[in-house]
Amino acid sequence: MRTWTNQFGADYAVPDEITKHPLLRDVSWGNDASPSFQVTFAGAGIRLTSDHPEPVNRETKGGRFMVTEWAPDAEDPQCFGDWVADLYEGDDVNQAIRIALDAAARVAMKHPKLAGKVTPEVLQQVPTRKLYRVTTSVQRSEDADAPYSHGMQMVDWYEGVNEEQARADWDEDCHRYGLPMDRVSAVFTECDPATHEPIGGTP
Fold first, then answer.
1. How far is CA 96 from CA 34, 42, 47, 56, 72, in A?
2. Torsion angle, CA of 71/76/80/83, rounded to 10 degrees?
3. Which of helix, strand or coil describes residue 42?
4. Structural contact between residues 203 and 189, judged by C-beta atoms closer than 8 angstroms
5. How far apart are CA 61 and CA 77, in angstroms?
6. Which of 14, 34, 72, 152 has the fewest CB atoms nearer than 10 Å to its CB?
7. DSSP-derived 3-state class of residue 14
8. CA separation (Å) from 110 to 44, 82, 153?
9. Do β-strands 46-50 and 36-39 pair in parallel, antiparallel, or remain unpaired?
10. Among candidates 185, 128, 194, which has minimal Cα distance to 160?
11. How far is residue 93 from each of residues 18, 32, 107, 178, measured CA to CA in Å?
């Protein structure tokens, strides 16, 4: 039986959060770049990999944990279909697991041979994603050459299992678009995913 230890060695030190998780199955194979785990109820649809703890010993240059989505085979969901998307790459094992489980529930519900596995007991272990309306404001700058010197305000929508995750995605987008973070502020308002209205009547 293949395991991450006999395929890659104990120095990969896969965290207990992964190895002892009841919904993650070890599918490691030595020909891969790093130990791999699948969400048990999603067939081959979602894969979480755990690379070496020391970046210098990694085959790929990036975060230690990666979550990828694959299209399950129409006839046998235990077989990989086409690559769909990279869902996460970083060093936060708990965030990687949350994203993997959330994606797995979505994948399984759409597959006729997997949907029955998404039981209430399973869903209790899958984090519920929340919806946030984010109002981002950039203050004016007296320096006409400064980025976004005219100031602006915009509204975007972010999902996450909590505000912290949504805020991390927002922060990443702010840096991607070059917003001057010393002049940026944001208000996160949790909204009902069905109506997009603020929960609890908050503005």
1. 15, 16, 10, 21, 20
2. -10
3. helix
4. yes
5. 30
6. 152
7. coil
8. 14, 16, 37
9. antiparallel
10. 128
11. 8, 19, 21, 28
Domain spans, the chain: 4-123, 130-201
| Of residues 121 and 71, more confidently modeled | 71
Find all residues with CB under 8 Å of 83, minimum gap 6, and list them: 68, 69, 70, 71
Please state, in angstroms and rounded to a whole number, the distance separating the CA atoms of residues 78 and 38: 10
Strand, coil or helix: 53: coil
Q: What is the pTM of this model?
A: 0.60
Instruction: State residue 97 phi and psi, 5-degree precision.
Output: -65, -45
Say how far apart CA 15 and CA 20 lie, in whole Å: 9
Strands ordered across the beta sheet of 152-160: 152-160, 130-138, 184-191
Q: Are residues 189 and 133 in contact, defined by beta-carbon separation less than 8 angstroms?
A: yes
- Which residue, 147, 150, 152, is CA-closest to 136? 152
SS (H, E, C) 96-165: HHHHHHHHHHHHHHHCCCCHHHCCHHHHCCCCCCEEEEEEEEECCCCCCCCCCCCCEEEEEEEEECCHHH
The H or E element spanning position 191 is: strand 184-191
- Quick one: pLDDT at residue 37? 94
User: Residue 189 belongs to what H/E stretch?
Assistant: strand 184-191
